[in-house]
Automatic annotation (TrEMBL):
The gene is trmB. It catalyses: guanosine(46) in tRNA + S-adenosyl-L-methionine = N(7)-methylguanosine(46) in tRNA + S-adenosyl-L-homocysteine. Pathway: tRNA modification; N(7)-methylguanine-tRNA biosynthesis. Pfam families: Methyltransf_4. It is an enzyme of class 2 (transferase). CDD domains: AdoMet_MTases. This is tRNA (guanine-N(7)-)-methyltransferase. PROSITE patterns: SAM_MT_TRMB. One of its GO terms (cellular component) is tRNA methyltransferase complex. GO terms for molecular function: tRNA (guanine(46)-N7)-methyltransferase activity.
């Protein structure tokens, strides 16, 4: 081992990588026995690993069909209902919280839903590395966390960089459908989506709720109390 040459220039200090701002916070959640059993029994078949490589979705589903990707399906009730009513479409659900993954797996088993696959990973990385440009028939983002406090608005999911990425993954004519029950977030969504040149609004502002999006119990209760819900449906040019 030789001593370093003191006259040699010092290496340039490397800039530390900035942490990406996440739109979610991983929280510990309670797992029911049914959810845990579904994870163990059905997870190996229906939960796909994150690979960082373009996915072979036809192989994953065992067929070639239109594909719709959903970001943040929560406990999966609406996701399962939509998949059940649209058997000719394949659905890719992304959710980071394990109880929600277990809950949707349980529904998959109970309702024998063969057109659903799950990724438990960061949605941005999935979109960037596993989903090919122009390959999706639709994207659903229903009731994402509104991050009410102004200092947390930077965590909101619907931001220009993500919308540009989503638009690039949609096939021409593909639909990006967002919904929220928080009016300030709805206003931000409308502004951001309208500014994306690859997208065109299907309505004059907010859209009527499409028939395929089920009315959740939480949503129905809010409507009875006079709370609003805003749907935004944009189409890839």
């Amino acid at each position: 081992m030789t001593d370093a040459d003191p006259s040699a220039p010092s290496p340039e200090p490397t800039e530390p990588q900035r942490r990406a701002i996440r739109s979610y916070v991983l929280r510990a959640g309670r797992m029911g026995t049914g959810q845990q059993r579904a994870l163990e029994d059905l997870g190996p078949r229906f939960v796909l690993p994150y690979t960082g490589q373009p996915a072979d979705w036809a192989a994953a589903f065992g067929r070639e069909a239109p594909r719709v990707l959903e970001i943040g399906f929560g406990m999966g009730a609406a996701t399962a209902q939509i998949a059940a009513t649209r058997p000719d479409t394949d659905f890719i659900g992304i959710e980071v919280h394990t109880p929600g993954v277990g809950a949707l797996l349980k529904r998959i088993g109970e309702e024998q839903l063969g057109n659903l696959r799950i990724l438990q990973h960061d949605a941005v990385q999935v979109l960037e590395h596993m989903v090919a440009p122009g390959s999706l028939a639709g994207v659903h983002i229903f009731f994402p966390d509104p991050w009410h406090k102004k200092k947390h608005h930077k965590r909101r999911l619907i931001q220009p960089p993500l919308v540009a990425l989503l638009a690039s993954r949609l096939a021409p004519g593909g639909v990006l459908h967002c919904a929220t029950d928080w009016q300030p977030y709805a206003e931000q969504m409308l502004e951001v989506l309208s500014a994306e040149p690859l997208l065109a609004n299907t309505a004059d502002g907010y859209a009527p709720r499409p028939d395929y999006r089920p009315l959740t119990k939480f949503e129905a209760r809010g409507i009875k109390l006079g709370h609003g819900v805003w749907d935004l449906v944009f189409r890839r040019r």
